[in-house]
Amino acid sequence: MVLVLEVIEITGSSKTSIEDAVENAITHASKTVRGMRWFEVTESRGDITDGKVDHWQVTVKIGFTLDK
């Protein structure tokens, strides 16, 4: 059996954590992308307000299998 994989890159955000930002990205992608198999965080960044982290943002690559 041969699997054909496709990779997309998306960005997720959260006010609470990097992990939540990743979860938000994957949850959003799962609404339209089937067969998701793996993810890789390629970039993380955030906003600072009044000397504190205000917002997290991550870019993730998501690999998924293509339909036959």
Main sheet: strands, sense, barrel = 3 strands, antiparallel
Question: How are the strands of the biggest sheet laid out side by side?
Answer: 1-3-2
Beta strand count = 3
In which range does the helix fraction lie? 10-25%
Globally, the shape reads elongated
Which runs of at least 5 residues are low in confidence (pLDDT < 50)?
A: none
* Average pLDDT over all residues: 94
Question: What Rg is obtained from the alpha carbons, in whole angstroms?
Answer: 14 Å
Q: What separation lies between the terminal Cα atoms?
A: 11 Å
Strand content: over 45%
Structural class call reads: alpha+beta
Number of alpha- plus pi-helical segments:
1
The succession of helices and strands, N to C, reads EHEE
Describe the overall structure:
With 68 residues, this protein is an alpha+beta fold. Helices cover 18% and strands 56% of the residues. It has one helix at 18-29; strands at residues 5-14, 36-49, 52-65. Strands 1-3-2 form a three-stranded antiparallel β-sheet. A hairpin with a 2-residue loop joins strand 2 and strand 3. The longest helix is centred in the middle third of the chain and has 12 residues, at 18-29.
